[in-house]
Amino acid sequence: MKKLLALLTAVLLLSVSVFAVAETAEPDLLARIRERGTLIIATEGNWSPWTYHDENDVLTGFDIEIGALIAKGLGVEPQYMETDWASILAGVDTGRFDIACNGVDYTEERAEKYSFSDPYVYTEIVLAVKDSNEDIKSFEDLNGRTTSNSPNSTYAIRAEQAGATVVYVDTLGETMSMVAQGRVDATINAKGSVDDYLGEHPEAPIKVVQTVPGDPVCYPVRKADDTASLVEAINAILAQAREDGTLAELSIKYFGADLTNPV
Length: 263
What we know:
The structure is a single chain. The protein is of the alpha/beta class and 263 residues long. It folds into two domains: 29-120 and 218-255, D-Maltodextrin-Binding Protein, domain 2 (3-Layer(aba) Sandwich); 123-215, 3-Layer(aba) Sandwich (D-Maltodextrin-Binding Protein, domain 2). 42% of the residues lie in helices and 22% in strands. It has ten helices and twelve strands. The protein has helices spanning 2-24, 29-36, 62-74, 85-94, 108-111, 154-161, 172-180, 191-200, 228-243, 246-255; strands spanning 38-43, 52-53, 59-60, 77-82, 99-100, 114-116, 121-130, 146-149, 165-168, 186-190, 206-217, 220-222. A hairpin with a 5-residue loop joins strand 2 and strand 3. Helix 3 crosses helix 9. The longest helix is centred in the first third of the chain and has 23 residues, at 2-24.
């Protein structure tokens, strides 16, 4: 009888301890987002067609619409926070932003620090130069040249790896202006963004000389034990949007092509 009472007491104490831990455990990021009622999304707001302001100065773009889709799937409202590229991933890392919706490429180096969603689009990368430039025809020709890109972007990293000196700028418009004016020799950028820019500025003296497959594009979340459920929820929402055709429709709307499959 004494052994039975001791066993029952031990079970009761264990149950109370587990309940106490459950009661005092901090809610994870997904729970906090739902309690808050908003998903805080970092975005540049000046990188068309991913994220930009339309003629009425309304924030729009491919990633803006998908960000709203994700927020709706989580049962909350999207809260977009516009900032420069250099601050986006840093803000995700510190918890200032829940996710970044800004055409962020997945790389092994970034994956060491951030948890990424499944890819939602696959882009191509282009090398663009002034239309009178006949010396640069491929990435191999960038050695000893100058390019312009946002700091810490995968495009800047590719340029540096090719031996170029990168002049850092904050926007695609600045990048393209520097190429057109001959202030830098070239730029590496997303094909969709360069195509969009040249479509809006057909007079720009810029040409594309090489196109290569890019990295898969995913949504980064701070890497921590309390963010796993958010990544799982985002993946489920993206999977549904892929299955019902929403992803493809939005890709065609903003890029003029279905970029939802690997290149």
